[in-house]
Structure formats: C-alpha cells, structure tokens
Amino acid sequence: MAKRPNKYTKILKKIAEKHGTPVFILDHEKIRENYKEFTKELPRVQAYYAVKANSLPWIVKTLYRMGSSFDVASFPEFMIVYENIKNLPAKRRQDFIWDKIIYANTIKQIETLHKLDQFKPLVTYDNAAELHKIKIHCPHAGLCLRIGVPNTGSMVELSSKFGAHPGEAVDLILEAFNAGLIVEGISFHVGSQCNNFENYMQALQLSASIFKESESRGHRIKILDIGGGFPVRYNNKAKSFKVLAKKLNTEFARLFPEDIEILAEPGRFMVANAATLVAKVIGKAVRDGKVCYYIDDGIYHTFSGVIFDHCTYPIKAFKDGEKKVSAVFGPTCDALDTISIAEELPELDIGDLVYAENIGAYSHASSTYFNGFPPAKVIHINK
Ligand SMILES: *Cc1c(COP(=O)(O)O)cnc(C)c1O
User: Do 123 and 55 share a domain, yes or no?
Assistant: First the structure.
C-alpha cells in the first residue's frame, strides 16, 4: 500500500528540494505552543528559556514575544539575548534585566564577570571561591545559590558537576550576606529529560528547608528557581509533563508562600519537538548482509545529540515499502559517525530523502565543522 503523503511531509520535501540538504526546519508555531502549554500548566512559574538548548536568535525573538525570559550560561549567550530583545516590545512590562535574564552557569570566567557587572545581573553560584570572584569582579550582581539535588533517572545527569551540598547551603548564603552581597534565590537542576518526578519533589523539599533556615538566620529568600529537566514526548515511554506540573503546583502551594517568585529554566521542552531534519542518502553499501545508508548529516552535525544528549532520533523515509533493518551513517570519515545500526527502513536509493523529528534541542547547537562539513542550513517556518 502506498503511503499517503501528508501535508507535513509534503512541506518538508518541498523545503529540502528548494534549499538543499541537510536542512534543519524549525517550526515557530510549535515553539509558541510549547510556551503556552508550559505557562498554562504552571501558572505560578515564569519561564526562563535555557538558550544553550538551541541558541538561534529567532528562537529568542519568538519566545520573548510570548513573554519568556532567558537562562544564559556564557557571555556570548548573554549577548544573543540582550541584542535580540532590547528593541522588541515586551508583552508584559517587566524590568530589564533581572526579570529577563538569569546567568545560570555557577562557574564564570573573571573576564565574563567584569563584562556582566554593568548589567547588574542575576547570577548563580555554588561554592565559596566563586562567591569571592563575584564579590571582587561583579559586585553589582544579585545571587542565586544552586544546590545539588538527586538526578536519578534523568537522561542527562548534572549533579556530579554542579550544586552546593544542601548541608553547606545556609553557610554559603550567610557568607554571601556577610560579604555585602544579596542572595535573592535558590536554584537546582534535576537533570535533563527527567523521567523521575521524585527528583523534583525532593529538590522542592530541600529548597523549602533552606528557605526556612535562612529566614530563621535573618535572611528571607525571595526566588525559587526550579531549573530545567521538563520531559519531552520523544516516545511512549516518556512521562507526561502535565502530570509533573500538577505535582509541582501542589508542592508550590504547600511549601512556598504566595510572595515567593518561582522561575524555571526549560530548554529542551521549548524546542525539542519544534525541529525536523531532512537529509539525503548519498551512499549505499551492503556489509555483512546489512544495508548501510550514508546520509549527508551525522553525529558531528545535527545528530550530535546522540553523543552529547544520549538521545536517539528515529530515521524515517518519505517512501513506502517493505522495511528492513538497516544501518545509517553520517558523511564523515569517522566510524563514530554512526547514527544507528538498526533502523527499520524501506529500500532507499541514492538521492532519496529521509527525515528525523523532535531534533530541536541539543542537536544543531552542538554541530561542528568536522571534516569540512558545515552544520545544516536552518529554515524557519511560521515565524
Ligand atoms: C541545560 C540547563 C537547563 C535546561 O535544561 P533542560 O533539561 O533542557 O530543560 C536549565 N538550567 C541550567 C542551569 C542548565 O544547565
């Protein structure tokens, strides 16, 4: 039976024919839908989009127009946001810059701190050495203490690299106030693509007890930043964001008074399902009885998430036909450049197009120029 081409695959094909491959097609309507869902399900939370998931300036513009704020983790990311929003009208009147940007990398170069100071930024820290750097090189910053929380069962683990031990948290808060700085908030990250909601529950409980102890020592913290980790439906095994949101709302109401501002730093959630990659079959061989396809995008490029993000992106054909287990490789001369050794694909010919969905996060952002192959061309739709 012939596969009926739907409207969506027709658009993909048309774009690939017009612009060539590999082409990274980003649908801004999806980004807007994701933002709307996030704010609808978590009404108490202001979203700070984590720019590192995909730092294309048009994403920043689209999200800013929706009312989003931003989480940056380097000075170039800070400037991508700053340059792209400073002349745009805000949907909701917010004070520049704290309400719009958090610098959420707990380790900052001294040069970066110097450059940030003029913006009076909100920055995170998780250790005493960083606190002293901030005091000297960025004294106008407001602080957010990042605590380490369980990352069990998350696709990407972060707790081995970041976060103060909860037992040291209050000391680090007092140390900041004693140095003449102000701790505005507590933040954490449960690990990316979190499928274990207990991580969030434990993190909220830990944060609430730090809020309490800090208040009893004379310092009331005003901001709770619950970080990222919100799961995306890559497949049926992924847990539901809606279920998580319900649990979070219950815990917010139980543990944090109304006047505590709550922020989140969703990265993946805003962009993962907003992009599709279309590539072309450029070579074909049979090795040990298995059909091997070589396509013009791979592990060093848009599929870099296979390595860095521990993610998989099923390869789909536009054609129909009996499916066979096939291998799919990228175009470079490295054997690491293997997208999959077991994809179910119909017989393809050189020149045929294939596509991969849900490839908007941690993919194009970590694409390289390895072996002379540039990153995929980006085409925006519904901008
Ligand atoms: C990467 C990162 C995020 C985004 O995480 P997602 O899992 O993509 O939502 C948020 N905050 C910090 C500090 C990060 O490093």
Answer: yes
Report CA(146)–ligand 1 centroid distance (Å): 13
| Whether residues 12 and 128 fall in one domain | no
Alpha helices in 20-74 (DSSP H): 28-41, 57-66
What average pLDDT does range 271-275 have in this prediction? 98
Query: Which residue out of 69, 71, 162 has the highest number of ligand 1 atoms within 8 Å of its CB and is therefore the one to mutate?
Result: 71
For residue 1, is it within any domain? Answer: no
Q: What is the pTM of this model?
A: 0.95
Q: What is the rounded CA–CA span in Å between residue 18 and residue 194?
A: 38
Percent of the chain scoring above 70 in pLDDT: 97
State the residue range of the domain holding 315: 6-25+272-381
Q: What is the pLDDT of residue 204?
A: 98
- DSSP, residue by residue, 238-270: SPPHHHHHHHHHHHHHHHS-TTSEEEE--SHHH
Q: 71 CB under 6 A from ligand 1?
A: yes
